[in-house]
Amino acid sequence: MNKSGLVRTLQEEVGISKAKAEAVIDIFFDAMSDALVRGDRIEMRGLCSIFVKNYRGYVGRNPKSGVPVKISPKKLPFFKCGKELKERVDI
Q: For the chain, which domains are there?
């Protein structure tokens, strides 16, 4: 499922216009993104938790040439599946 699928489902389930459904989905995703930027954790019981993981810098290697390459520190969102979702998918 993609964003347009979510919009369509919301539109059908709630009976609102496509524009309103898109606005709701945009607000939802923007709020989640803003929370992660602030360093907050997103937790939806039974579905998932998403948080920002800090990775240290390290020296890697270019696979073609074997030349050492410095990899700078970074932050990446990390998704952890909830127990209920795991059980529901593993039928």
A: 3-81 (4.10.520.10)
